[in-house]
Design goal:
The structure holds two protein chains of two kinds. Chain A is an all-alpha fold. Chain A is 57% helix and 2% strand. Chain B has one domain. The chains are: A mainly alpha, B mainly alpha. At the A-B interface, helix 2, helix 4 and helix 8 of A face helix 2, helix 4, helix 7 and helix 9 of B.
Chain lengths: 221, 202
């Protein structure tokens, strides 16, 4: 057995162990708003992964030519241009989904995940590792988005990708949709539960307590 | 819809972090202590109150379909450039605000601390301008919407930080500590705020 190559671990690290959403608190803004249904979640995940990989590649290519003082502006302009292209493509080919995503595609521009990865990785690394790192982070983000989107659509409407999976009570089946799943709070609860689950399986991710109880020496009550 | 209704709906019914999930990164990261949360909230109100009306002017004078009619180009539609223009305006306003405050009100500048530059890449602020275009607000409506959205964010982040400050002494399961419990708290607050939507519907 050979040791996994560094590129492979760059790709797989962010999937669960270093997941951008549940561990690094990056890119949550859009992660929750678009997850009421699986199709919107999938579109969003795809768009973000593409923007992330391309912007990391471009910024990494010109990393030696960007003056430090204006690097944020340069990065934002590159990301914004890519987002405009994606937005126009979605409006042209997936009009209905792009209507229900509303402003959230444009908001990829300010997604902390994109700037976070370009700032911390693409600025110091050659294009290939940067794009792979971006791809891994995009996939980690997509994983969370798809998981939450699937749960919310399944229990909120009894469907997956628009197909009826659980027979609804009003159509003679047994399943009564949970209206809460369609509302904002459920996304918070689900993500909170997901974070809890991941950190229970991987205790090394848990945050240290802010305050420790004072130690009472032996023999003193 | 009267302006007061617009303000209330921007602040409560469409609360930026709790109902629309916007600006969550700063909402979660900077709500550990009430002092920082209040500073962030005030900075949000100031920046949103300035950028939304300013972007409304930029959009209606330069970018909207047919807006360049005054320059003799009535058929040009630059609305796809809105995103770039808005980001530029927001970055410039934040920078300008920081320089002005540093020069004339150093006390306030110290209170804002590091939050002002962060706000350039805050999704809630950009979203304010994008919603303004989507719903075609006028200049006054934009101003009220910006102030209302900022106020709603400030309220929510202050409340969350107060709850988190009390929970610092609680004995939570290890996996729930920090981020996990914050999501649950935000969910409960969001449940409370969703009742405002019921009130607005009546």
């Amino acid at each position: 057995m050979t040791a996994p190559s560094p590129l492979w671990s760059t790709l797989t690290q962010p999937l669960i162990r270093q997941n951008p959403v549940t561990l690094q608190i990056l890119g949550i803004c859009s992660a929750l708003a678009v997850t009421t249904q699986l199709p919107t979640a999938l579109t969003m995940a795809g768009s973000l992964t593409i923007v992330l990989a391309l912007s990391a590649g471009i910024i990494s290519l010109i990393r030696r030519h960007i003056p430090d003082a204006i690097r944020l502006i340069v990065q934002i302009v590159i990301v914004a241009s890519l987002v405009i292209v994606i937005d126009q493509l979605l409006q042209a080919y997936l009009f209905e989904i792009s209507q229900s995503l509303s402003v959230f595609v444009s908001l990829i521009t300010t997604n902390c995940l994109v700037l976070g990865r370009t700032e911390s990785f693409a600025r110091h690394n050659p294009p290939l590792p940067s794009m792979i790192d971006a791809l891994g982070n995009g996939l980690g983000y997509s994983l969370v988005l798809i998981a939450i989107g699937a749960v919310r659509e399944l229990f909120g409407a009894g469907t997956l990708l628009g197909y009826q999976v659980l027979p609804l009570a009003e159509q003679g089946g047994w399943f009564t949709p949970l209206a809460l799943m369609m509302l904002a709070p459920s996304a918070f609860f689900l993500l909170g539960g997901l974070v809890w689950a991941i950190r229970t399986v991987r205790p090394e991710q848990a945050e240290p307590p802010e305050f420790a109880a004072p130690q009472i020496p032996e023999g003193m009550e | 819809m009267s302006l007061w209704d617009l303000f209330l709906s921007a602040a409560f019914v469409e609360n930026l972090p709790l109902t629309l999930f916007l600006g969550l990164c700063t909402f979660l990261a900077l709500s550990k202590r009430p002092e920082t949360a209040v500073g962030l909230g005030i900075a949000m109100i100031a920046v949103m109150g300035v950028t939304v009306p300013l972007n409304q002017l930029v959009y209606s004078a330069l970018l909207a379909p047919g807006a360049l009619a005054w320059a003799g180009y009535p058929e040009i539609d630059l609305s796809y450039l809105a995103l770039l223009a808005f980001i530029g305006v927001i970055a410039a306003v934040v920078q300008l605000l920081e320089m002005l405050l540093d020069r004339f009100l150093p006390g306030v500048h110290a209170a804002f601390g590091v939050f002002l530059p962060l706000l350039t890449v805050q999704c809630a602020i950009l979203a304010g301008s994008l919603f303004m275009v989507e719903r075609s607000y006028t200049l006054t409506e934009g101003l009220v919407f910006g102030l209302g959205g900022g106020t709603g964010f400030a309220l929510a982040v202050t409340m969350l930080s107060a709850i988190r400050a009390r929970l610092a002494y609680a004995d939570l399961p290890a996996g729930l500590r920090g981020l996990g419990i914050t999501f649950i708290l935000a969910g409960l607050m969001s449940l409370g705020f969703s009742s405002f939507a019921q009130m607005a519907a009546q």
